[in-house]
Structures are given as structure tokens and as C-alpha cells.
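Key idea: predict the complex, not the pieces.
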Amino acid sequence: MASSTGPELERLIQLLARLPGLGPRSARRAALHLIRKREALLGPLADAVRVVADRVVTCTTCGNVDTSVPCAICQDTRRDPAVLIVVESVSDLWALERAAALNARYHVLGGVLSPLDGVGPDDLNLASLAERAADPVVTEVIIALNATVDGQTTAHFITDMLQHLPVKVTRLAHGVPVGGELDYLDEGTLVAAIRQRTTL
Amino acid sequence: MASSTGPELERLIQLLARLPGLGPRSARRAALHLIRKREALLGPLADAVRVVADRVVTCTTCGNVDTSVPCAICQDTRRDPAVLIVVESVSDLWALERAAALNARYHVLGGVLSPLDGVGPDDLNLASLAERAADPVVTEVIIALNATVDGQTTAHFITDMLQHLPVKVTRLAHGVPVGGELDYLDEGTLVAAIRQRTTL
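Result:
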């Protein structure tokens, strides 16, 4: 390789190979694709990566990534200031935004409690969450963490942490995914779906 | 999405999603990964894409991509000038270079003849191949095209095109892939492997 591809191209391939979803082979394919689509893709990508590298920052209020601090969501006055949605990561925030489920603000924890991985309360954005939840304007904190052991442990930790505050702490409903088939669901989900059944 | 991720980030995601192997969802994951690894990955990638966008050119001699014209392979005086290896694409050139099968020079066709897709002889780098093969120093042209219908049609076309020249035209051997199991091979490959058997 070193003799056939120049060092510049080799470096691009090595960096692309470190993206999730790409390996050494697909990184080479991606690099060739970029070179073939020089005008439409390579040039614009160079600009886009540079702009993001120079300008994207983490919101000091909620932990979202954006080009402004506070981020566009925290600045958005049309959002309900009474509701905070607690998420594990920015990708979860994006998922909820795509679903457009609720016009509220977020708080990105940056992970979940995980004693096995050495992640304790001090490693997460929990202090800032307690601070934001203490704001009198906030009436509800929705915990939108993954339904995993670590996620649920973190949810209980947050509930305990906020219990002295006059805010309602809620969590996402468990149940049958929309479009899901009962036959393929685990027992825990089915029990939750039965227990939390709603009237038609 | 538009409201939650800024336009700069959205643009990066859209461009990443156009890379082969990445879709909209994995492009978002890749963008977040880049932002998390800002120092180690995002900054270097911005530089690497810019350098490649500015400096990579197609070699006017062989069709390889490199930062110099002629490319490093065409300039390499240690390579056998008597042998030309004809490949469909730069990725095939890279594959042969990785295998280090032969220390020769290449000629990238930029595709294969495909009447159904409207690819005729004028769409490929065939004229320049005839020119290079006419150089008295060249004694052999190895046709290293895919063993597909279009690849083999192109191979025959090249053989005809070069038959008035005093060069030997050869093609890659057909046979059992190294590490391959006979049980999984098609009949055509097995027949070729039997016919072209070699003495131990």
C-alpha cells in the first residue's frame, strides 16, 4: 500500500477507517468514492468537516452539541420550559427530536452509572441536572434512559436525587413497540404492556 | 432534525451519509463519534480531506490517483517497464499492489465495456493503452479484469486491439481461490481449475 498510495491518501484512509461502521477496506472504497466525486462530495466534505471541527461546541447548559452556547434547543423560546428530558447521549436526544415527541428541553447525562465500568455519579452531568431541576419553572423531569440495567439504576439514582424537589419525575412507558409482533417480544415487555394497558 | 442539529452539523451528516457503507443513521453516529474525538480524529480528518481535495490528481499516464503526475508507480524506476497490467479501476490496482504480485506498471481503464450501460470503447482509456503497448520496451500486457461477462468481453476487445503489436497479451489464471473449498465453487471455476492444472 505505502508504495502505491501516497501518504496523503493513506492518511485519509486511516482516519476514515476509524469511523464507526467503516473498516480498512470500506475506508479505501469511501476514499476512492470521494476522489471520483471530487466536485460534489470531496470539496464540500472538506469544508463541512473543517466548519464542524472549528465551530461545534458542547452546550454548557444541556450537553447537546451545536455551534452556539447555549445550543439552539436551549435558546428556543417556543419550547416548554417546565419540562426537562434526561437522556444518556446526544444521539438519544437526536432520536427524540426526530420523533418530535415533545417540545421540551433536554439534559444530556453523558453516560449512565456503571459500577463495572467505573462510572460513578461524579462522571455524569448529575450536579447540573439537580441545579436545573431546582429552578421553580421546572415542574417535570422525564427520564428517557435506555431500558437496560444500568439505565434503570441511573433512573432510580436520579429519582432519589430529585425527591426533595417539588418536581414530578416520570419515565418512558414500557410496552409493545409500534409495529412490533407479540411473538418476538420478551416476557418482561409483555408483562409491562399488560400491566400498563390503556382503555380503547 | 433541522431544529435540533445546527445546519453545519446537518450538512456534515448529509455528506457522510453519501459515502459507500454509511447511511443516514450511521452517518449521524459517525458525526457524533468525530465530535467526541475532536482532537484525535475530527481535526486531523478535516486536514486530511482538505489535502486530498486540493492535491490528489489522476495520473495522465496510467489513470491511478496520486498527488503527483506521473504517479509514484509510473515514476518508480525499479518497476519492470516491459510489463503493463490492465485493471478496471484504481481499487483493483490497490488490491494488486497489496498482494505485491508483480513489480510492474498499471493501466486503469476506468470501467469495462458494457453495452447495456452504454459504455463503449471511447468511454474507456483504451486509446492510451494502445499507445503505451506500442512502446517497443513493452513486451507483455497482463489483462487483470474481473471474471465477469463484461470483464471478459473487454479482455477480448483488448486482445483484438493489440494483436497487430509484437506484445504478448495474457490474462489472470482461473482456478480455486487460495483457502477456498471445492464444495462451494461453481462448475465453471472447477472446470477451469482442472483444465489448467499444474504438476506438483
